[in-house]
Amino acid sequence: MKKITDRIGEYFSDDINKYRFGAIVLFILVITALAWQSDDAYHAYAMSKNLVDGYGFVYNIGERASASSCPLFTLIVAFGYLLFRNMFLVSLLICVIFSTCAFAILVNTFCKSKYQVCTAFIITIFCSSFISYTTAGLENCLLFLLAALFLKKYFETDTYKTGDLLYMAILISLIAMTRMDAVLMFVPAVVYLYLAKRNRVSFIKCCFIAALGLLPFILWEIFSLFYYGFFVPNTAFVKLGTNIPKSEYFYRGFQYLFTTLICDPLVIVIPVATALIALLIKKAKYIYVIAGIVLYFAYIIYIGGDFMLGRHFTVMFFMAMISYFEIYNKELESNTFVSKKRNLITFMKIVTILSIIATIVSAPVVNQFKYGGYFSSPISDERATYFQWTSLFNNAISYVRTGDMCITDAWNDYGVQEFREQGYKSGIFENVPGVTKYYNNDMYLNDYYALGDPFLSKLPAVLEPNWRIGHMHREAPYGYADTIVYSDGEENEIHNESIRKYYDVIQLITRGDLFDKDRIQAIIDINLGKYDYLIDEYQSTLDENNRQLPEE
Fold first, then answer.
1. Whole-model pTM?
2. What letter would DSSP give residue 308?
3. Per-residue pLDDT tens digits for 222-248
């Protein structure tokens, strides 16, 4: 106990640590006061709950399909739920812990002065998107922490030993398990440290270390293929396997960038400004980190962005913050760049101040960017939309006043209760929000966005005038709704012969006995594309917007 007391006293004996501690406490207070939950988080929470309740790591009980693009975070939430059995509070607690640890690494490791601590705090607090997704219940908070841990080790030295390489490979594995495409942000840095800066470690040994570090992700992929039948979650098919022209995705991607820049300038400007400074410094170590940010930036444009304002830019923003302070302390404070120092520092200060002013000025604009705002944008400020129902503050007030939480009022149930009262146990609806699914988890529920539907997600999406990325509507083949409602998916009532056969294959994979030889063969065949011709034959019966023609 005395050693702990001595360490605490030693820590606070330094004035800068008092600032660091104060910034961390204030950060906790701010994100807790603004804590909320995204509706999308509850799709994954349904999986967490099912796992703890003994129904498997599935979205709908009895059907092996994953509606979570962040399996590691979903598993962590499941563990928290196992201990405390209050999904709302335990998920918020996990988010606050991960986000706070990430911020603590930023200020304790990379901020070397009181000024820098204050600057880091102000920039993060004024970045609306970053603060929004510290507690949204999505994977961002865990990615903040893993990115901070990776960059802490990456910037620690100029050459890397065996232990360093293994540690960072494990982090990459965990990042891939958190969100597979997030690895793109770290690929250039990994190439740099494994190929250029390994310290007396042979290339063959490097490959072995990488394989060992990636083992958790490799094992997860093997499990995913065996259990679900696919390497990627169902959400990947929903968002990318649509048959919507690529030009439409690029348009949505630039729309996402433009909308985010208007509503939350800091989340875009800080990475761009840091990239420019890194290029002027001309050191490979910084350029490779920036290259990862640029690569992911391009990827976000390529996939059409997102419907959640700023969400996919937040990890890049946080990595850029860490990189900026590292560059400032290692390069701009040294005598090497005296001639450039003042100009670069002045540039960054001006950019930061202008971005904060722009953020304040743009606040009224943000309110217009709920769904259908300026430019008919399908991008929304999710926290502004859901805060009244899913925030910690409003739910606490509601519980004190009425004894019930208000989160269940976040969405209309779209006819789910009516179905329940009529005695149905299964249904496919126009829309099944995450909150609705979670609080009716004993029912088999899916919608035409197919987030948790392993069959509909493989079909071409309908091309609508103002479609939202992640919300691409699929038309259910004639007879599919009857199959779900009247037989819980057991009796195939689909009319089209080709897609009827495809449904039988999906049923075998997602509902058949795990070790059935026919199921294993079906998994191999579907991943090799041997059933694609069935979807092609079905699509040939649709119109140019992938809508079904009237039956004769």
1. 0.91
2. B
3. 999 999 999 999 988 888 777 788 888
